[in-house]
Amino acid sequence: MRWLWIDRFVEFVSGKYAVSIKNVTTVEEALDHYLPHFPMFPPSLLIEGIAQTGGLLVSEQHGFRERVVLAKVAKALFRRPVVPGEQLRYEVHLKDQNPHGALVHATASINGQPAAEVELMFAHLDERFPDELFTAEELYQLLVLYRLFEVGRTVDGRPLPIPEIFEPFIEHRSQDSNKRSP
Amino acid sequence: MAATSEEVFQKVRAALVDALGVDEEEVTPEATMVGDLGAESIDFLDIMFKLEQSFGINIPRSELFPDDILNNPNYVQDGKVTSTGISELKKRMPYLDLSSFEQHPVVQNFVSMLTVNDLCKFIESKLAEKSAGA
């Protein structure tokens, strides 16, 4: 199973906010085990989806070079169960950041109806934790899958530039597109 | 107008209650943040964010946690802060009462000995800095 708890980004404004969506389906194993006989999306995984959205919002601020991890769930309020067939919309706002971490506020909604409110804190791993979380290529593939660079914008509305660490993979892509262009 | 010590304490207490999930009554000036209130290292990041927001100040981590002194071989020997290191700490953080730390100046004890009152004094010094700069 892949630990990807959002389907894609729909909005992303650097340093400000990000919106992602997650479609909840009956094929997800997590729904079988959380509350037997009442398939619902586990609230902990809703937090994980918000953390993935917010973590990338924070990480983008550092050219995706910092290893950003969820450090603390400061607040989590769940307003209703989320069931198969529903689409969660996570809206995550970057509230504060410093060289050691960041704070985000987020809401989850379904068709405009509130489902949850969450406040998360992220920390940047320092040299005490030497392990790599992802390779640059893995991360780039994930961001492409999430369509981050399709929807991403800078704060003044320009397309989000693709950071330097992903350049080896972009060159490959632009060569392909050159072949297709006259 | 400068915030009074009581106002600073009230806001610091609110931040600690919120960040650490402790009761208001537990947050006394003498309480140590790590030992008595159960703060872990990651909580300090949360506390800093809350205090920055609440007081409208910027708190560089190095000012509350002088890692550059505590990790400096010129000031630390065998895991203990030397007398030169203690002088440096006093210079950097004149509002801290280091008397108990001086008895057992083990580097790890530094964060453990910080009390709610120390945090309030730190905030007061930052607010004084801010009003002097304004």
Record keyword descriptors for this entry.
heterodimer; A: 182 residues; alpha+beta; Thiol Ester Dehydrase, Chain A; seven-stranded mixed beta sheet; 5 helices; 7 strands; globular; disordered C terminus; B: 134 residues; mainly alpha; Non-ribosomal Peptide Synthetase Peptidyl Carrier Protein, Chain A; two-stranded antiparallel ribbon; 8 helices; 2 strands
Structure description:
With 182 residues, chain A is of the alpha+beta class. Chain A has a single domain, classed as Thiol Ester Dehydrase, Chain A (Roll), CATH 3.10.129. Chain A is 28% helix and 33% strand. A seven-stranded mixed beta sheet of chain A has the order 3-6-5-4-2-1-7. Chain A is globular and about 50 Å long. Chain B has eight helices and two strands. Chain B has a two-stranded antiparallel ribbon with strand order 1-2. In chain B, a hairpin with a 2-residue loop joins strand 1 (76-77) and strand 2 (80-81). The longest helix of chain B has 18 residues, at 116-133. Chain B is globular, with a radius of gyration of 15 Å. The model of chain B has no long low-confidence stretch (mean pLDDT 90). Classes of the chains: A alpha+beta (182), B mainly alpha (134). The A-B interface holds A 71-72, 74, 95-96, 98-101, 103, 121, 123 and B 18-19, 42-43, 45-46, 48-49, 52-53, 60-61.
Short structural summary:
By secondary structure, chain A is an alpha+beta fold.
Strand content of chain B: under 5%
Strand content of chain A: 25-35%
> Structural class of chain B, please?
mainly alpha
Largest sheet of chain A: 7 strands, mixed
- How much helix is in the residues of chain B? 55-70%
Helix/strand structural class of chain A: alpha+beta
CATH topology of chain B: Non-ribosomal Peptide Synthetase Peptidyl Carrier Protein, Chain A
Q: In what order do the strands lie side by side in the largest sheet of chain A?
A: 3-6-5-4-2-1-7
- CATH fold-level topology of chain A: Thiol Ester Dehydrase, Chain A
CATH class of chain B: Mainly Alpha
Broad CATH class of chain A? Alpha Beta
CATH superfamily of chain B: ACP-like
Please state the CA-atom Rg of chain B, rounded to the nearest Å.
15 Å
Largest sheet of chain B: 2 strands, antiparallel
What is the average of the pLDDT values of chain B? Answer: 90
